[in-house]
Amino acid sequence: MLDEVARGMEAIEKALTLKKLQSKDVQIHTNTRVTEVLDNRQVKLAGDNEIILEGIEKIVVATGMKSYHPLAELLEGKIKIHVVGDALQPGKAQTAIRSAYQCCIRL
């Protein structure tokens, strides 16, 4: 549960990325974690308040610096999950970026 998006990114790149996400109306939730995935395409988040996201079709996991995808069991049979980057397999930055890019163009 991080309190910041894109921590560690270079300032200009971070600003441009966040601006683009905002222009696409991408919801960003910090200090939250997924607590439950419901069969009706809803995802519950816990943080300062409980949030329920609706109409979820796919989830992309790109966390940490080691292979870690705890949502796989939680999502099984409910929502399509895509694990990319170091969450899938630790490696070089360019490999993680390529993995995420290839996943995104398939979506």
Describe what this molecule looks like in 3D.
The chain has about 110 residues and is α+β, with helices and mostly antiparallel strands. Helix content is about 30%, strand content about 20%. The protein has three helices and five strands; from the N terminus they run αββββαβα. The chain has helices spanning about 10-25, 70-75, 95-105, and strands at about 35-40, 40-45, 50-55, 60, 80-85. The strands form two sheets. It has a three-stranded antiparallel beta sheet. A two-stranded parallel ribbon has the order 4-5. Strand 4, helix 2 and strand 5 (about 80-85) form a beta-alpha-beta unit. The longest helix has 14 residues, at about 95-105. The radius of gyration is 14 Å and the shape is globular. The model has no long low-confidence stretch (mean pLDDT about 80).
How would you briefly describe this protein structure?
With 107 residues, the protein is an alpha+beta fold. The protein contains three helices and five strands.
Helix-strand blueprint:
Blueprint: H1 11-23, E1 33-38, E2 42-46, E3 51-54, E4 58-61, H2 71-75, E5 80-83, H3 93-106
Parallel strand pairs: 4-5
Antiparallel strand pairs: 1-2, 2-3
Q: Strand-residue fraction?
A: 15-25%
Average of the residue pLDDT scores: 81
Give the beta-strand count.
5
Radius of gyration: 14 Å
Strand order, sheet with most strands: 1-2-3
- Bulk shape: globular
Number of helices: 3
Stretches with pLDDT under 50, minimum 5 residues: none
Termini separation comes to 26 Å
Q: How is the biggest beta sheet arranged?
A: 3 strands, antiparallel
How much helicity do the residues have?
25-40%
H/E topology pattern: HEEEEHEH
Oligomer: single chain
Structural class: alpha+beta
